[in-house]
UniProtKB/TrEMBL annotation:
<dbReference type="GO" id="GO:0008413">
    <property type="term" value="F:8-oxo-7,8-dihydroguanosine triphosphate pyrophosphatase activity"/>
</dbReference>
<dbReference type="GO" id="GO:0006260">
    <property type="term" value="P:DNA replication"/>
</dbReference>
<dbReference type="GO" id="GO:0044715">
    <property type="term" value="F:8-oxo-dGDP phosphatase activity"/>
</dbReference>
<dbReference type="GO" id="GO:0035539">
    <property type="term" value="F:8-oxo-7,8-dihydrodeoxyguanosine triphosphate pyrophosphatase activity"/>
</dbReference>
<keyword id="KW-0234">DNA repair</keyword>
<dbReference type="InterPro" id="IPR022998">
    <property type="entry name" value="ThiamineP_synth_TenI"/>
</dbReference>
<keyword id="KW-0479">Metal-binding</keyword>
<dbReference type="InterPro" id="IPR020084">
    <property type="entry name" value="NUDIX_hydrolase_CS"/>
</dbReference>
<dbReference type="Pfam" id="PF00293">
    <property type="entry name" value="NUDIX"/>
</dbReference>
<protein>
    <recommendedName>
        <fullName>8-oxo-dGTP diphosphatase</fullName>
        <ecNumber>3.6.1.55</ecNumber>
    </recommendedName>
</protein>
<dbReference type="GO" id="GO:0046872">
    <property type="term" value="F:metal ion binding"/>
</dbReference>
<dbReference type="InterPro" id="IPR020476">
    <property type="entry name" value="Nudix_hydrolase"/>
</dbReference>
<keyword id="KW-0378">Hydrolase</keyword>
<comment type="similarity">
    <text>Belongs to the Nudix hydrolase family.</text>
</comment>
<dbReference type="GO" id="GO:0044716">
    <property type="term" value="F:8-oxo-GDP phosphatase activity"/>
</dbReference>
<keyword id="KW-0515">Mutator protein</keyword>
<dbReference type="Pfam" id="PF02581">
    <property type="entry name" value="TMP-TENI"/>
</dbReference>
Length: 321
C-alpha cells in the first residue's frame, strides 16, 4: 500500500426501492452528461450536507420522478468503490407514494422483477442489491420437534400453497437418517414451487440432497473463513461480531434474534425493536428479525430496517409469505 495517498472522498447517496404490490421495483436509466450515462440505477442521488437521508430521498424522488413519498423505511447500506469516488449507498424501500412516476430527468424508467431483469447495463454497485431483492419478506423455519412431523409437513404444504418462498429446515433432534428423510419430504413438497429450501448447519447434506443452500448457526459462522459453496447461504446472528463476520464472508442474509421472548430460548435476553434497529443500522446484508414474532410484526420489523421476519411457531397463520 502506498503511504500518504489521500482517501478518496466518501459520497453519501440515498437510493429508492420503489416497490409495487407484485414486488416489482423501478429502475431508471442515467441521462447523458452524467458519469455512467446509460447505466440503470435505483432512483436517488447524493445527500446534501443539510439533509437527512430521508429528506434527500423525498427531494430526489420529487425532482426525478414527480412523486411524493408517503412511507419509506431503511433497508440495506452498501459501500462501493468506484475509480473516481467511494459511495455509501443507503437504500430505502418506498412502500407508499403519491403520483405516477414520470421520467423528469432520466431517459427511461422500467418496472423490473429481481429474478428477471430485462434492462442493462446496471450500475456496478447494484448487482448484490438485486440478489437481496430476490429474498421474500417472510422466512419460515420448520418446527417438527414441537409439533411432530405430520403436522409440520402439513403446515409447510399450506404455507407453500399461500406462496412461501424461503424455508429453513431446522430439526436438531433428528438423527442423520431421520433428518435426511424429513428433508426429502420437505423437498418433495417444495418441488414445482418458487420456494428455496435451506437446511440448518448441515452443508454436506445440503449438497447431497441438492437443497438451495444452508443456514449457518452463529458458532458455525464464526468458525468459517470462507463462504460455503452453496447457492444461498443465511446465518444466525445475535451481536455485532457475528454480523460483521457474516458480511466479511459474503453471506446472503442473516437472522437477528431474539427480538421478542420465545419459548425456544426462554432465558435469552431479548433485543426488542429499538436494539434491533440500532444493531442493524447501516448494515449491508438483508436482515430477518427473529424470535417470538407474528405475521403482523412484518411492518414494525421493516420500519426498524429489517428486510423481513422469520417465523417458526406462527407459520400457519402467516398471510404474507
Ligand atoms: N441514484 C443512484 N446512485 C447510485 C446507484 N448505485 C450507485 O453506485 N450509485 C452511485 O451513487 C452516486 C449518485 O450520484 P448521482 O450522480 O446520481 O447524484 P445526483 O442525482 O445528486 O446528481 P449530481 O451529480 O447532479 O449531483 C453515483 O456515483 C452513482 O454511480 C443507484 O442505484 N442509484
Amino acid at each position: 500500500m502506498t503511504h500518504n495517498m489521500p482517501n478518496p472522498p466518501l459520497v453519501e447517496v440515498v437510493a429508492a426501492i420503489l416497490t409495487r404490490p407484485d414486488d416489482s421495483f423501478l429502475l431508471a436509466c442515467r441521462p447523458p452528461g452524467k458519469p455512467y450515462a446509460g447505466y440503470w440505477e435505483f432512483p436517488g442521488g447524493k445527500i446534501e450536507a443539510s439533509e437527512s437521508a430521508l429528506q434527500a430521498l423525498s427531494r430526489e424522488l420529487h425532482e426525478e420522478l414527480g412523486i411524493t413519498v408517503d412511507r419509506a423505511f431503511p433497508w440495506i447500506t452498501r459501500v462501493f468503490r468506484y475509480p473516481h469516488a467511494t459511495v455509501r449507498l443507503q437504500f430505502y424501500r418506498v412502500a407508499e407514494w403519491q403520483g405516477e412516476p414520470i421520467a423528469r430527468e432520466h431517459q427511461q424508467l422500467a418496472w423490473q422483477s429481481a429474478g428477471n431483469i430485462t434492462v442493462s447495463p446496471l450500475l456496478p454497485a447494484n448487482q448484490p442489491i438485486l440478489r437481496s431483492l430476490m429474498l421474500p419478506s417472510t422466512y419460515a423455519i420448520t418446527n417438527a420437534s414441537e409439533t411432530g412431523e405430520t403436522h409440520s409437513l402439513h403446515a409447510i404444504r399450506q404455507a407453500l400453497q399461500r406462496g412461501l418462498r424461503l424455508l429453513q429446515i431446522r430439526e436438531k433432534h433428528l438423527t442423520d437418517s431421520q433428518l435426511t428423510r424429513y428433508a426429502q419430504a420437505v423437498l418433495q413438497l417444495a418441488q414445482g414451487t418458487q420456494a428455496k429450501v435451506l437446511i440448518n448447519g448441515n452443508i454436506a447434506l445440503a449438497k447431497e440432497l441438492g437443497l438451495d443452500g444452508v443456514h449457518l448457526t452463529a458458532a458455525q459462522l464464526l468458525s468459517l473463513h470462507t463462504r460455503p459453496e452453496v447457492d444461498w447461504c443465511g446465518a444466525s446472528c445475535h451481536n455485532e461480531e457475528e454480523l460483521y463476520h457474516a458480511e466479511s464472508l459474503g453471506i446472503d442474509f442473516v437472522t437477528v434474534s431474539p427480538v421478542c421472548p420465545t419459548p425456544s430460548h426462554p432465558n435469552a435476553p431479548t433485543l426488542g425493536w429499538r436494539k434491533l434497529a440500532k444493531l442493524i443500522r447501516g448494515y449491508s446484508l438483508p436482515v430477518y428479525a427473529l424470535g417470538g414474532l407474528m405475521p403482523d410484526d412484518l411492518i414494525p420489523a421493516q420500519e426498524q430496517g429489517a428486510h423481513g421476519i422469520a417465523l417458526m411457531r406462527n407459520l400457519c397463520t402467516s398471510a404474507q409469505p
